[in-house]
Structure formats: C-alpha cells, structure tokens
Amino acid sequence: MNWEAIIPLIGFLIIIFGIGMYAGKFVRSSNNFLDEYFLGGRSLGGFVLAMTMTATYGSASSFIGGPGTAYTQGLGWVLLAMSQVATGYFVLMVLGKKFAIVTRKYKAVTLVDFLRKRYQSKWVVLFSAISIIIFLFSAMAAQWIGGARLIESLTGLSYTTALFIFALSVLIYVTIGGFRAVALTDAIQGTVMFVGTLVLLIAVIIAGGGISSIMADLMAENPNLVTPFGKDGSLSPAYVSSFWILVGVGVVALPQIATRAMSYKNARSMHRALIIGTIVVGFIMLNMHLIGVFARPILPGIDVPDTVMPLIALEVMPAWLAGIVLAAPMAAIMSTVDSLLLLVSSSIVKDVYLNYIQPKASPNRVKALSIGITAVLGVIVFLMSLNPPELIIWLNLFAFGGLEAAFIWPVVMGLYWKKGNKYGALASMLVGVGLYILSDFNLFTQPFGMHAVVLPVVVAFFAYVLVSLATQSKGTNEMKI
Amino acid sequence: MQDDYRFKIANREALIGVGLVIFNFIWWFAFAYGMGSKDPEEYSYIFGLPDWFFYSCVLGFIVMAVLVAFIVKKFFVEVPFEEEVEGTEKE
Asked: Which residue ranges run through the membrane (chain B) (predicted)?
C-alpha cells in the first residue's frame, strides 16, 4: 500500500465528514425540512454556488472521457472540452433570475416541482420523474464504479473493499447533511480541482521538458495529435461542435444543474457566481485536458485511458503531493454521486410520493422517508456496482443526452414562452427521448455526422411549439408566468 | 403579474446569455478550424502551443472570462427574488 499517497486522501475524506456534520445541524434545526434538505434553504452565496455548479459540470466531462481521451486524441479533444466554458455563464444567465423568481413563487424544490406547477399535468410529472430516476440512477452507478476504481488503483485494496469504502463515505454524509452538505463540500472539492489540476499541469510541463519540447514529441509521434481533428482525423468540425449542445448549452436541462439554479440567495450571489463560475470552469477544463495530452510523451503506451490521471500524478510528483492532487478527481466523482443520489431520492419522495401517493404525509414522515430512501438507494447502487450489469453501462452513456432531450424545451420554453402548455411539453419530452433512444440503434443516420443528441433536441423544439400552438383552444389551467 | 418589471430584466439577461454563447462559439470555431486546417508542419507556435489552439482555447477562454465579468458588472441588475408588494416599480 502506498501510504504516502493514501494519508492525504483520508484527510480529505475526514474534512468532508466534518462538513456533513456541520450542515446536518441546519437540517435538524430547520422548520422547512424539504427546502433545507434538498435546497440548503435557498441560501447559497456566490462562491459556493459557482463551485457547486463547477463540480457538477466537472463530472459531466468525466462522462465524455476527460483527460484519458485527451491522452488518446490529442489537442482536438481539449478543443472539444472547451465547449464547456459556455456552461459557466450560459446556464445561470438563461435560467437566470426568471427561474429563481418563479421557483420561489411556486415554492418548487426540484425541477419536476417546477414542471408540475407550470404545466399542471400529472403525465408531465410522472414522465419527468421516471426519466430522472432511470437516467440518473444509471449515471450514478457508473460514477460509483469510477470512484471505487480510483481508490483501488491508489491503495491496492480489492475492488469490492474500495467500493465499500467509497459507498459508506458518500452515504453517511449525504444522509445526514442533505443539499447544504453537498454544496459546501462541492465548494471545497471545486477548489481542490482548481488548485490540483494547476499543480499537476505545471509538474507535467516540467517533467516533459517544457511545452515546446512536448509539442515536438507529439509532432514526431503523430502530427494529427496537434491538429483539431484527433489522432486519425476523425473528429469532424460538425461532431466536435455538437458537443456545444451535449456538454455546453444543453446542460441547462440537467436536473442536477437546474436544482442549483434555484438554490442561491440573491441576485448578487448569482452575479458573483457567473464571473467565478466562468473562470473556474474554463480553467479546470483547459488544465485537466491539457494534462492528458502532455502526459503522452512522458508516459507513452497507457492502454486504459481512465488510469492516465493517477499514473501521471504518481509519475511526476512525490507520492504525498500526488495523494493531495488525486483528491481532485475523487472530489469530482464524489460530488456528482452525492448530488445525483439526492436528486433521485427527491424525485421519489417529492415528485411521486407526495404528489400522487400520500399528499397528506406528515412532515416527520417525509423526513424519515427522504433520509431512508436516500440510504436505500445508496445500498441498491452499491449492489449494482459490485457486478455492473450491461444495461447500466449502456444507460449511463445515455443519461445526459436523454435528460437534455427530455427537459430542455419544457424548462426553457416553459419559462419564457407564455403559450407553451402541457400538451407541447409532453410531446416534446416523448419525441425527444424517443428519438434519442432510437438513434442509438442506428435506425437513421445522424445528419452531418453530429452527436446523437442534436437531432432529438431540434425535433423536440418543433414538437413543443407546434403542439402547444395546435392545442391553444383547449382550456388548460396551468399557471401563467 | 405578467408585467413584473423583474421579468423584463430577466428576459434581457437571458438574451445576453444567448448572445454570449453565440459569440463564444464563433470565436472558438473560427480560430480552431480557420487556422488549424492547414498542414501541421506549417503551424506557428505561441508559448509553445500551436497557434490555432492558443487563439481558440487559451485566448478564447480569457476573452470570455473578461467579457462575462464586464457584462455582468455593467449590465446585470440586482432585483429581489422574494415576493414583494411594490412589484411595479420601474428599473
């Protein structure tokens, strides 16, 4: 066991626990349990908001492969990753003040809450809740596997033990602390990612003998690595550009992001978060992916892209520093898992149980149920990750695109277009998710070689508008905004 | 309530967001594929990085960060989020 690298990591976990305990005090003393547990009492300040957003996006990029893929593809993949700079300002500007005001007015705690109040339709709610539960559940299992693998590679423990340690630490503090704990630790994790990637990047540049010599090595190995087109020229401009939708602007529709966009205290927090968020997201994305590219001449021939980060850190830095820096990807994985866990449980408790099964449940029952379900979900994901079924991996790849296809127009148009109604929202969700799933079976070709998410999102837009317009005469009783 | 003054501000700021992302995309795309499409042997290098990459990803990011900071400070208006009685006052 590599104790020098493990001790900093353990220290990090202990700090995280401390925060969970601290945040738990707010949950116990709060008179509005749901608001506090799922939204931190809508009291986040600018810095914490920016960091919790960043930590959540940061993991959206581990979804697209991150530094490992950059190692394989070269600078073209860094270019692709930079489409995420847009998330730093776009999400908060577009959902923006309108979302903050409207969700307060509706007393909405989740994205589905907002949709329920806006469209007043049982079917919209049930379809949304099901999408969230299925897609996020699968995304979560894959993240757990990733977290366990990192602990495994760092400590030399068996996969099962590593998974157990990971699961236990996540569960304990999510269950006690709720959203505030998640947001506060995200702030620390975001900071760790920010500093960690910078330190690692510098160490890698020094180890590679300066940027110029690294570039010369890459040129000598394969000139395609320094072009925007990927190692074999297969990253077409249309394909790379379509990531602006998948990991850029489409992120607006991810429930874990939307939740954050209703949790901040006031307009000043939002303004600060816009500036800090843009800088931090861009900085982390640029550094993290450049590390992947620069690692190539230093450590050639890594077969498993996921191991690039730990291997290069242990190669270019003393073990104790590597331990601290590796807390960064660990941080990214943990923060995703926490927020996903919280979201799935809020979908079950708030969106399904409170709306349709037992609307008159007592506050204490809701509290017990929220904490209980969060814990049960954790255990189920743990069991699934022990021996991950094929279907989960397949679904994980779809989680982000599927959620975007489902929610982007019902959320954005629901906010800004008065004529949008439940028929339009439902049509848009069905068409978006349906087309997205069908496109995986290659039933039709993707226009211009774009990513599978593009076409469903475009068609879902027209479905929303046309169906809403066609059903204007039907008297719907949704809330006007 | 439809004419809540805060919504006018919110709508304008959302449009600014859309405008920024379009500008960001054009900057990113034009430098990457405009300068990056030639033979890699002909690239010039800035701070050791190929010119297309430097302008598109490094400078592009710095430009966006500065632009966002400037626009937020200059054009974004602070409004209360809670329900208040004097909801019709002009900005």
From this structure: 12-32, 52-72
- The answer to whether B78 contacts A241, with C-beta atoms less than 8 Å apart, is no
Phi, psi of B46 (to 5 degrees): -120, 125
CATH number among 1.20.1730.10, 1.10.3210.10, 3.40.190.10, 3.50.50.60, domain A3-395 = 1.20.1730.10
Closest Cα of chain B to A373: distance in Å? 31
Rounded average pLDDT over A203-208: 94
Convert the pLDDT of each residue in B22-63 to its tens digit.
999 999 999 999 999 988 888 999 999 999 999 999 999 999
What integer is the mean pLDDT of A248-272?
Answer: 88
Residues 6+ apart with CB under 8 A from A357: none
Nearest to A44 by CA among A270, A311, A371, A325: A270
Determine the residue of chain A that is closest to B15 in CA distance: A94
| B68 close to A (CB below 8 A) | yes
The verdict on A210 touching B (C-beta cutoff 8 Å) is: yes
* Minimum Cα–Cα distance from A279: chain B residue: B65
Q: Map out the domains of chain B as residue ranges.
A: 20-75
Mean pLDDT of A380-396: 69
Q: CB neighbours (10 Å) of residue A355?
A: 17
Contact B68 A274 (CB under 8 A): yes
Q: CA-CA distance, A6 to A151, in Å (whole number)?
A: 9
Query: pLDDT tens-digit profile of A2-26?
Result: 677 778 877 877 877 777 777 777 7
Query: If you count residue pairs, one on A and one on B, with CB atoms under 8 Å apart, how many are there?
Result: 144
